[in-house]
Amino acid sequence: MCVVVASAAAVLLYVLQADPDRDLDFAVPRTLLVLAVLFLICDSTPTALTSRQSAWSPSSSATLAAVVLLGPGGAALVGASSLFSLRRGGLRERVFNGAMYTVSAFAAGAAYVALGGRVGIPNPGWFPGDILPFAVAAAVHVAVNHGLLWGMLLLLPPARVNAQRGRLDLHLPLLLASDLGYATLGLLIAALWYLVGPFAAVLVLIPLFVARWAMGQFAAQQAAYAATMAALCQAVETKDFYTRGHSERVSRGATMLAREIAMGAERVEAIGFAGMLHDVGKLGVPTKVLQKTGPLTEEELAAIQLHPMRGLEIVRQIGFLNEALDGIMHHHERMDGKGYPMGLAGDEIPEFARVIAVADAFDSMTSTRSYRGARSVGEAVAELRKCAGRQFDPVLVDAFITALQRDGWRPSKTADVPPGFRAQIAAQDHDDPTAPLRVVESY
Amino acid sequence: MTAQRHLARQSAWQSMDSGQLLLVSAAGVLLVAAVAQTAAAGLVQPRTALAFGALIALGELLRLSLPGDREAAPIGSAGALGYALLLHVGQHPAHQPALQVVAVTAVGMIVGALPHLAAGRPAGMAGMASRLLALALVAVAFRPIAGLAILDRQVWLRLAVMLVLIAAGWFAECVIRALIRADALRARFGVSLGDELQIQVPLGAAVGASAMLIALAAEAMGLVALALFIAPLLVTQTAFRRYAGIRSTYLQTVRALARVTEVGGYVEDGHSYRVSRLAVAVGRELGMSEPDLLQLEYAALMHDIGQLSLADPIPGGATVLASPEDQQRIAGLGASVIKQAGVLDSVAEIVRCQSLPWRGGQVVPPIGSRIIRAANAFDDLVGGSADRDRSTAALERLRLDTAAQYDPGVVEALSKVAGRLYVGSGRVPG
Fold it and tell me: By the number of CB atoms within 10 A of the CB, which of A121, A174, A207, B389 ranks highest?
C-alpha cells in the first residue's frame, strides 16, 4: 500500500509542479471543479452490484471526462478528490482509494496523450480520430484500478481475501463491463461539453441512477427471497422440535463445503438453497411413523425413503434450481451403493448430493435428538472419517474437516422442550449415521 | 417439429384478444403507409437511417421483460426516439421526414424480432405496436419543426421541446398499454393506468435521457456516437433484467413452496394455486392496484401454511368445516411463520385475519383477508371440478352466509369471476 501511496504522491507533486508551465485558461479551474464535484457525487453513491457489500461507483466517468477535458494532470487531481468522498471508510481506506484513483487517472491520461489524443473541449472534428486513444485510456484506467485493488487483496490475510474474492468473483465480468461502460460515458460528457456545458454531466447521470435504483431493487428482492425461503423451510420443521433449524444449518454446512472445494459462486448459491430444501419432502411422512420408537415395518421404511422424491415435486417448479434437484433427490445415496432411492454408487452420485449428505449427517450428529444428546464436533468428525469411503465421499469429508477447523461451527442451541409445547417429536432420525433405522425382520 | 411450431404460432394469434388485435392492426396500417411513402420519396440520408435502424433492431433483439408480464426494449426505444429528435449528424443537418422515422423504426423492430420468432419465443407484437404508435406521435410532432433556425441557436429551447415531447410520448405509450392490459385482465382502466405509470417511471426516465443524449451526441460526434452509447444503456438494461428475473423467481418459489401443504396431505392438490388465481381475479374486479394484488397473491398462496403445525391433516383439508377457534389459531400460526421472513408483514396480516368474520367481530378484516376467506371457502366446496351446478351451489351457500361471514361485495365479484373461469365442463386448468 505504501508503494501505491508513494507513487500517488509523486504524481501529485509532478502535476502541481507542472501547472505553472501550462498557460491557465479561465475555463480550466471551473471545469476542474465541476468534474471533481461530479466525481464525488458518483463516488459517494456507489452502485450496489450484489446483495452483499461489494459496490462499484461510476466515478470513472468523471475521471475519463477529465482525461479529455483537462489532460493527465487534471485527471489526477480529479481522482485525488476521492479523499473527500462521503462514502464511509476509515482513514486508511480513504488514503488508499484516493491514491488508487489518482494513479489510475494519471496513467489513463498519459496513455491518452501518448496515443495522440487531444486535450480540451472537443469539437465534432475530433471524432472519430480520438476514439482509439480514448478507448485505450479507458482500458488502462480500468486495468490499473482493478489491478491495484486485486494487488491490495493479495496482500491481505487469507481469510478476509476469500470473502472479498468470493464477492468479486461472482460478478467480475459484470464489473469490468460496467466499468468500461462508465468510462465511455466520460467521453460522452466531454463531447457534449461544448453543446450544453456541465449540464452534460446531469443528463448522463440519469440512466446511471436508474440502473442503481434497479440494482437496489434487485438486491432487496434477493434478500427477501432468502428470508422467505428460510421462513417457509422453518415452517416445514414445526413438526419436530428438535430438528428446528436443521435446514438452515445444513444449508450453511453445504455452502461452507462448497466454497472449500472452490465451486463457482452461482453453484454455491444454488447448493445453499438445496441444503435448505433438502428435507422438505419429509412432510409427506405420516407423523406416527416419525414417532415410532421401535423397529419400522417395510412400509413405514418405504414411506421414509420416499421423502426425497416427494420433496422433488415441490422443488422441480423452481426454475433455477436444476442441479439442486439432483442434490435433493440423491442426498441419501451412499458411496457403496446401498443408499436410497436409487442405489447409486461412487461417482454416479451427483456432486451436490454428496456435499449435502456430509453436511446433513454432520448436523444430525451435532444436534440434540430425543434419543440422545448432541455429540461434540470432534466426535462427529471422527464418525464422518469412519464412514468416509463407505457412506460419504472421502475427498469431501477431508475438505469439510479442513473448513471446520478453519471456520468453526455453531451448533444448534440445545434447549429443552418448553412446557406445554404441542409439537410432535420424532423418535428416530433418518439422517443420523450412528443410529440407522431399524427394520422389522421379515420372515 | 415445424407442425408444432406452426400450431404454436397460430394459437398465439388466436390468444390475442380484440384490444390487442386492434392495436396491432393500427400499427400495421401505419407501417404500410410509412414504408410506402418512404419508398416512393426515396430514403433521405441512408447512412444515418441504416445506423439507427441497426440500433433499433439490436434493441429489439435484446428486449427484456419487466415485473408483471410486461415487455420493454429500452435500447430500441431510445434509438428510435433519438432518431426522431435528431437535428444534426456531425456538421450536417438531418432532415428525414416523420414517416421515414416511423418506417425505419418499424423495419428495425421487425428485423430485431425475427430471431425471437425463430427461437420459438412469442413475437411480442402488442408491445412493438404500442412502441411504434408512441414513437409516431413524437416523430410527427417534432420532424416538421426540426428545420427551425431558432432551435439551432437556443440550445435550452431545444432541450425543453425534446423533454416535453419525450414525456408526451411516454405518457401515450403508458395509456395504450394500460388500455390493452385493462382489456386483457378485466381490470379497471384508471387503476391500470396508475399501475402502468408507476412501473414505467424509472425505465422511462432512463430511455428518455438516453434518447436526448443520442440526439445530442450524434450532433457532437457523428454516427460513431451510436456505437459508443450502447454500453451504459446496456448496464441499465442488465440491471432491469436481473430485477425482473428475481421477481419472477420469487413468485415461482412461493408458488412451489406453498405446495408443501399439498405434499403433506393437508390440503387438496392444487388448492393453493386455485385460491390464489381466484383471489387475484376478484381483487382485480374490485379495483385493487398491482402492488396490492401481488401481496394478495402471496397471501393466498400461503394462507394454509399454519396447518403445517397440526399433528395430522384435517380430513379432506377443508378448513371451512373446522371450528372458528381452530381456524383462528391456524391462521395465527400461519401469520407468525410468514412474519419471520421479515419482509412480508402485510402479507402476514392478511393471512392472520383470513378467518375473521366480515361483520360482528371486533375489527373489520382487511380487504385481502375478506377475499381470501371467500375464495378459500369456494374452493373448499368446489375443488378442482368445473361443474357449473356445483359452483352455483357453492356461491349460493356463500351468499346465504353473507350476513355474518362473507363480504357481499366480495361474493358478488367472486360470482362474476367464477362465471368466467368455470365455463364448460372438465377440470379447471392449473
Answer: A207
Answer for the pair A362, A400: CB distance below 8 angstroms, yes or no.
yes
CA–CA separation, B158 vs B164, rounded Å?
10
Chain A residues closer than 8 Å to B249 by CB? 225, 318-320
Give the pLDDT confidence of A20-69 residue by residue, as tens digits: 434 444 456 777 777 777 777 777 665 443 333 334 566 777 888 888 88
Cα dihedral across residues B53, B55, B57, B59: positive or negative: negative
- Whether B309 has its CB under 8 Å from any CB of chain A: the answer is yes
Enter the DSSP assignment of B90. T
Picking from B69, B124, B73, B66, the residue whose alpha carbon sits closest to that of residue B240 is: B66
Residue A127 pLDDT: 66
Name the phi and psi angles at B88, rounded to 5.
-135, 150
B119-128 tens-digit pLDDT = 888 878 889 9
Give the C-alpha distances (Å, rounded to integers) separating A365 from A126, A242, A250, A362, A386: 72, 12, 12, 5, 13
Report the number of secondary-structure helices (H) and strands (E) in chain B. Answer: 18, 4
Distance, in Å, from the CA atom of A85 to the CA atom of A97, rounded to the nearest integer, reads: 10
**CA A339 to mean position of chain CA atoms:** 34
Nearest CA among B303, B293, B254, B295 for reference residue A228: B254
DSSP tag of B66: E
Q: What are phi and psi of A388, to 5 degrees?
A: -65, 140
Number of A:B CB contacts under 8 A? 202
- The answer to whether the Cβ–Cβ distance between A218 and B242 falls below 8 Å is yes
Residue type, A212: R
Residues of A in contact with B229 (CB under 8 A): 184, 188
For A326, phi then psi, to 5°, come to -60, -40
Q: A402 to chain B, minimum CA–CA distance in Å?
A: 33
Q: What are phi and psi of B66, to 5 degrees?
A: -105, 165
Q: Which of B243, B260, B341 sits opposite A218 (nearest CB)?
A: B243
Chain B residues in contact with A423 by the CB 8 A cut-off are: 309
- Tell me what the mean pLDDT of segment B322-343 comes to: 84
Contacts of A223 in chain B (CB under 8 A): 343
Q: Which three cell numbers stand for residue A14?
A: 509532478
Instruction: Look at residues B190, B159, B158, B186 and name the one whose alpha carbon lies nearest to residue B174.
Output: B190
- Please give the radius of gyration of chain A, using alpha carbons only, rounded to the nearest integer: 29
CB atoms within 10 A of CB A207: 29
- Name the helix (H) or strand (E) containing B93: strand B92-93
Q: How many helices (H) and strands (E) does chain A have?
A: 17, 2
User: Could you say which DSSP state residue A372 is in?
Assistant: S
Give, rounded to a whole angstrom, the gap between the first and last alpha carbons of chain B. 25
Phi and psi based region of residue A366 (left: phi greater than 0; alpha: psi -120 to 50; beta: remaining):
alpha
Task: Say if residue A114's pLDDT is above 90.
Answer: no
Contact between residue B369 and residue B354 where contact means Cβ atoms under 8 Å apart: yes
> Any idea what DSSP says for residue B124?
-
How many other CB atoms are there within 10 angstroms of residue B118's CB atom?
9
SS3 A56: strand
What does the alpha-carbon distance between residue A188 and residue B216 come to, in Å, rounded to a whole number?
10
Running DSSP on this structure, what letter comes out for residue A281? G
Mean pLDDT of B19-29: 90
| Cell (9 digits) for A345 | 454408487
Interface membership of B238 toward A (CB under 8 Å) = yes
* Of A256, A272, A394, A257, the residue nearest A323 (C-alpha): A272
ipTM, two decimals: 0.83
The SS3 assignment for A316 reads: coil
- The β-bridge partners of B65 are B71
